[in-house]
Amino acid sequence: MSAEIVRLSFFIGILCFCTVWEILAQRRTLTQSKSYRWLNNLGLVALNGLVLKFTLPILAIELAVTTSHAGVGLLNWLSLPMWLSVMATVVILDLAIYWQHRLFHRVPILWKLHRMHHSDQDIDVTTGARFHPIEIILSMLIKMVVVVVIGAPALGVLIFEIILNGSAMFNHSNARLPNMVDRILRRWVVTPDMHRVHHSTLRHECDSNFGFFLSIWDRWFKSYISQPKLGHHDMSIGIDKFRRASEQRIDKMLTQPFRES
């Protein structure tokens, strides 16, 4: 079975699981048409898959196979056991994505790309895969650089890609965890309540909780906010620039980085 089929199978499975979870334990009342948002968000996901396929001749997993065969990168030089190399790959790539995320909030031109993700006024499982195609390409290129430098094994990259996609859908889910479960889980991984703070319209809250999988980076690098100031039910989601319902249409999302209103 190819890596692409494995990734797609996990994507569909986690999407279905989180969808059912949102139905059974909805956290916030939706303010927008769910079917309209889903049609456009998932349409963007399909477009991003095509963009990657036709713009980059090789992706992170294929590059990892090449570097492993060539013996390039730190983990190949250290000759670590496979299980340890896989674990190291997942942790290092997750750290890289954390700093990439902070960079996209810090640099104005990158923020214009990334804010399309934040312009969703209701966050749910589909928001976790809603990114501008240019950001998707830049993110893939960053991952590929890290893969070469550390000599990541292909298995580790595949596992990380599955975890990254799965955790993004999980922590964007509009679903409720029992408070005790949330407190325990967020010591190690990003939970929906933890990440929801990051989608606040308040900029200091938006510039926090950058982690996608492991929550430890936000605590270690002082970017952690436990709860939104206005509470999860009263907080406002999105950004102020793009509040019209039409901005959730795929053509409008694609042009948001090049417009100011």
UniProtKB/TrEMBL annotation:
Any idea of its EC number?
1.-.-.-
UniProt-annotated location(s): Membrane
Q: Which UniProt keywords apply?
A: Membrane, Oxidoreductase, Transmembrane, Transmembrane helix
Q: Does the keyword Membrane apply?
A: yes
Please name one Pfam family that this protein belongs to: FA_hydroxylase
Transmembrane domains' residue ranges: 6-26, 38-60, 80-99, 140-164
Q: Which InterPro entries would you find in this protein's record?
A: Fatty_acid_hydroxylase, Sterol_Desaturase_Related
Record GO terms (molecular function): oxidoreductase activity
User: From what superkingdom does this record's organism come?
Assistant: Bacteria
Domain Fatty acid hydroxylase per the UniProt entry, residue ranges: 87-222
- Report the PANTHER family cross-referenced here: STEROL DESATURASE
Q: Give the protein name, as stated in the record.
A: Sterol desaturase family protein
Species assigned in the record: Vibrio agarivorans
